Amino acid sequence: MALVAGGALGLRFLVLFSRGDGGGYVQSLILAAILILVGVHALIVAYLADLLAVNRRLLEDIQYRSRLQGVPPAPRAGRS
Prior knowledge:
Shape: rod-shaped
């Protein structure tokens, strides 16, 4: 949502700038840049969350298969 709003504000600024009236709309350009950055950061966080979910599923599958084969669990680090 922020990415679309930022793109719309950026497009608005470009249209006004091409008409020769873009000097008074610098605030819109700054807001567009901030919204685009927020949107990109949200996409990156969503991608990382998806990667973590896939990794968790793979680890669960590995643990399930090792339990079926009777492999003892690995010792945890930091425990004595």
